[in-house]
Amino acid sequence: MTTVLPDTGVGPLLRDWREQRRISQLELALRADSSARHISFIETGRSRPSEEMVLRLAEQLDIPVRERNALLVVAGYAPRYAQTPLDDPAMAALREGLDRLLAAYEPYPALVVDGVYGVVAANRGIALLLEGVSEKLLAPPVNAMRLTLHPDGLAPRIVNLPEWRADLLAQMDRQIALVRSPELRALYDEVAAYPVPARADATNGPEPERGREQERPAAFALPMRLEHGGRVLSFVSSIATFNTPMDVTVAELAIETFLPADRETAAYLHAHVPS
């Protein structure tokens, strides 16, 4: 659904986006093949931008497509981007492609989330890591942030929880600044208020098996160090989104993959995730 702010004109909204992006009127004008004078007139309401100009400015300001729809409506135009539910037949090819991608990544964990971290799809690598998570957190709609940070979720088993939690909250904070989503803000406030479970050893976690020295996590990225089956598994994550999305639903999808940060983690997953 497109959110519209009826008391705010398109000019002030565009100005807010420009200032958030720390771009001057002149720089935006050069990017959009316009003039600083015209940009100023649009922002102050002295000039009504054409539909093409709204879209051109939104493109140069990297405004999310949901918010582009809102800008168009405020400017007096029809929304340009559809919002198609994932269970719509038109999305069948997308769903099948995502399922193939997740399956191909096994035994390593991967999942797809929407704009408020609702889990759209996940593979068997993720299912393995969720063993022991409270059933109430696994009941639909499942949310990745709640699964990770809730005291009844993964949080008690994340060895470096303070660092990982801080990274996730910072990620959400950056996203809130980008998309201005009340739902995302409410989720942030909820998960940020969760108590942080205490650990007997918040640095090293469970001891490795006798006679086997566990490899330290990779230093090239902050790992998530998760206790599972009496050992600590280490992962680094990456997030991928769709280029040039033309649908709000697709624009807000993100594919998160977890790469083993050491050989022991990789071997453990190969041994425990069904092939």
Give a quick summary of the entry.
It contains 13 helices and 5 strands. It has 275 residues and is α+β, with helices and mostly antiparallel strands.
Tell me what you see in this structure.
It contains 13 helices and five strands. The protein is α+β, with helices and mostly antiparallel strands. It has a five-stranded antiparallel sheet. α10 packs antiparallel against α11 (182-192). The longest helix is centred in the middle third of the chain and has 19 residues, at 161-179. The model is unreliable at 1-7 and 200-214 (pLDDT under 50).
Summary keywords:
elongated, 11% strand, 5-stranded antiparallel beta sheet
Mean pLDDT: 90
Beta strand count = 5
Largest beta-sheet characterization: 5 strands, antiparallel
How many separate helices?
A: 13
Structural class estimated from helices and strands:
alpha+beta
Separation of the first and last Cα atoms: 40 Å
Shape estimate:
elongated
Q: In percent, how much strand structure appears in the residues?
A: 5-15%
| Cα radius of gyration in angstroms | 22 Å
N-to-C SSE series?
HHHHHHEEHHHHHEEHEH
Helix content: 40-55%
Provide the low-confidence segments as ranges: 1-7, 200-214
Strand order of the largest sheet: 2-1-5-4-3
Record the SSE blueprint.
Layout: H1 10-20, H2 25-31, H3 36-44, H4 51-60, H5 65-74, H6 92-105, E1 110-113, E2 119-122, H7 124-129, H8 135-138, H9 144-149, H10 161-179, H11 182-192, E3 224-228, E4 231-240, H12 248-251, E5 254-260, H13 263-272
Antiparallel strand pairs: 1-2, 1-5, 3-4, 4-5
Helix pairs in contact: 1-3, 2-3, 10-11
